[in-house]
């Protein structure tokens, strides 16, 4: 699609919800994936940001809620717009801190898998997000701040 093309949405959302997804890796480079209960499909862990919650904290929380794995979020890969559903989703890179993947109330399965296997099994919506995370050599700057005081700065260099 060229830069001058536009998307036409039959009924644009009145407002957008903010989502956060985590592309998490373990110490051997496997990626964490989860099988949703409904709709039943393999995805990267993620969900909506709670009111007042920090964007990267939502990615870590959703990862734990869906997989039982605690991660450290290192950086932002990008922001993905889903116009028909009214969602803006931040895709974050994270690494394993603790925990073993397990089924949860939200997921019927969760597991570490090789990247190529994940690219085969993931729902098509999530494949480009994983590919973008793999291609990211540096992170988009994410500054958490109130006014002029920077509270934190995430960088992919820690990965």
UniProtKB/TrEMBL annotation:
Family: Belongs to the Nudix hydrolase family.
Protein name, per record: NUDIX domain-containing protein
The protein's required cofactors: Mg(2+)
Statement: the UniProt record of this protein carries the keyword Thylakoid: no
Keyword Hydrolase tagged: yes
Domain of life: Bacteria
UniProt xrefs under PROSITE patterns: NUDIX, NUDIX_BOX
Domain Nudix hydrolase: 15-135
Sorted UniProt keywords: Hydrolase
């Amino acid at each position: 699609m060229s830069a001058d093309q536009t998307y036409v949405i039959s009924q644009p959302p009145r407002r957008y919800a903010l989502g956060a997804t985590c592309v998490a890796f373990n110490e051997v480079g496997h990626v964490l994936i989860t099988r949703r209960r409904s709709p039943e499909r393999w995805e990267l862990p993620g969900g909506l940001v709670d009111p007042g919650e920090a964007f990267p904290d939502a990615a870590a929380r959703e990862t734990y809620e869906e997989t039982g794995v605690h991660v450290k979020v290192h950086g932002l890969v990008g922001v993905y717009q889903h116009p028909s559903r009214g969602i803006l989703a931040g895709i974050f890179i994270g690494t394993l801190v603790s925990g073993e993947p397990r089924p949860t109330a939200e997921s019927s399965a969760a597991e570490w898998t090789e990247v190529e296997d994940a690219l085969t099994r993931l729902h098509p919506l999530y494949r480009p997000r994983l590919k973008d995370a793999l291609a990211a050599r540096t992170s988009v700057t994410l500054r958490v701040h109130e006014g002029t005081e920077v509270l934190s700065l995430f960088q992919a260099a820690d990965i």
